[in-house]
Amino acid sequence: MNEFFPNIQQTIPFEGPDSKNPLAFKYYNSQQVIGQKTMKEHLRFSVAYWHTFKASGMDPFGAPTFVRPWINAATPLEQAEYTVRAAFEFAQKLGAPFYCFHDRDLAPEGDTFAESCKNLEAMVATAKQLQEETGIKLLWGTANLFGHPRYAHGAASNPDAHVFAYAAAQVKHAIAATNELGGVNYVFWGGREGYETLLNTDMKREQEQMARFFHMALEYARQIGFDGQFLIEPKPKEPAKHQYDFDAATVLGFLRAYDLYDTFKLNIEANHATLAGHTFEHDLTVASIDGKLGSIDANVGDPLLGWDTDQFPTDPAMCTLAMLVVLKQGGIGKGGFNFDAKPRRGSFDEIDLFYAHISGMDTFARGLLAAHQIIEDEVLDEFIKERYASYTDGIGKQIMSGQETFESLEQYLLQQGDPAFKSGRQEMLESILHSYV
Question: Parallel, antiparallel, or unpaired for β 37-38 and 33-34?
């Protein structure tokens, strides 16, 4: 495969930290064993089809700047054929084991629903053939339920049941496509599942509609034998002002309320977490402590911009904190690290796609290495263990075992006097973290 990226003649090599070659990995050594698994197995990197191959570089203030060779085609279906071939060539040369797609990215929307389904079937057949030829696998599929004007008021949460029915039929085919391609996850991102004003919105009804939609999806998945993991991806805003999937805690509350808790996990995105006012590691931890961290979208936002900029991650400290969460839960399971990220508008050459992904993969590899060593050395765990040691015996153990009451604790306080004031040592711990990075 050497059609769309002729300047890249081989798979991107690993050359080590001393390399000055921007087309080589400095830290991501796919076969290096960390603990019990290779880097490739730990990180399970995936290329996002929509940003990498469908993004145009257009922004609210300017026209597209990405003029890709795979868009030069006579028909939309022919362009889709070129694009999927470019995608597999890129992933193969990058050395990424997985890819992800929206249905309408993989195959163009037709003039009718039946034509759209026919287009998707054709492109699934091509993708399946390319998977067999390259060994690249599908991490997850999803449906674009936000781009078309029909979804202006939402999909599952839409006040028009006809739109709900259209979304259900579209997701039916997207799940089937994911199953046909051997995808191990299916993601729901509620791009327009939210509202702008309560003047025209019945919030309870819309959330009940969404829950019914998810139950129907589960029923269909069981019917066709799809055993992949269902994931919900939280996002606080954009495009809806009030999204029903605001953050990890909100989604977990929704799953509990509507009897979906045992059948869904979360796909956490860094940029979405920060838009919600959290750190990346916060939302990862919220999901992980409930056993619900299923997969990760690896990107960042710009702290000076208030929207979803989807940039490639370049901060090793952030990635170390993320990897601490993942390693402590025993790995990412069926999920992976999907680069839901795009080059900046001014980085419009095809080779910039390689520079961006290499940088992101190296950054997470550095995070993995640092996090593994931090855990091995127990430098943070020992401090945290000591900080909460008062709950492992004595009065703290009695509190947590239910032996104490407000009245008995008042008597304890009167006998013992005021507690000592202990430092949290934040600056010291930040220094330790950066010493490993």
Answer: antiparallel
CA angle 129, 135, 138 (to 5 degrees): 75
Catalytic pick among 42, 103, 105, 310: 105
Residues 6+ apart with CB under 8 A from 390: 396
Q: Is 290 a catalytic residue?
A: no
* Contact in structure between 116 and 110 (CB atoms under 8 Å): yes
**C-beta atoms surrounding 206 within 10 Å:** 20
Going residue by residue through the chain, which has 437 residues, state the pLDDT in tens, using 9 for 90 and above: 558 999 998 999 999 999 999 999 999 999 999 999 999 999 999 999 999 999 999 988 999 999 999 998 999 999 999 999 999 999 999 999 999 999 999 999 999 999 999 999 999 999 999 999 999 999 999 999 999 999 999 999 999 999 999 999 999 999 999 999 999 999 999 889 999 999 999 999 999 999 999 999 999 999 999 999 999 999 998 888 999 999 999 999 999 999 999 999 999 999 999 999 999 999 999 999 999 999 999 999 999 988 899 999 999 999 999 999 999 999 999 999 999 999 999 999 999 999 999 999 999 999 999 999 999 999 999 999 999 999 999 999 999 999 999 999 999 999 999 999 999 999 999 999 999 99
Of the residues 42, 51, 102, 357, only one is catalytic, namely 102
Quick check: is 51 catalytic? no
Query: Is the pTM of the predicted complex or chain greater than 0.90?
Result: yes
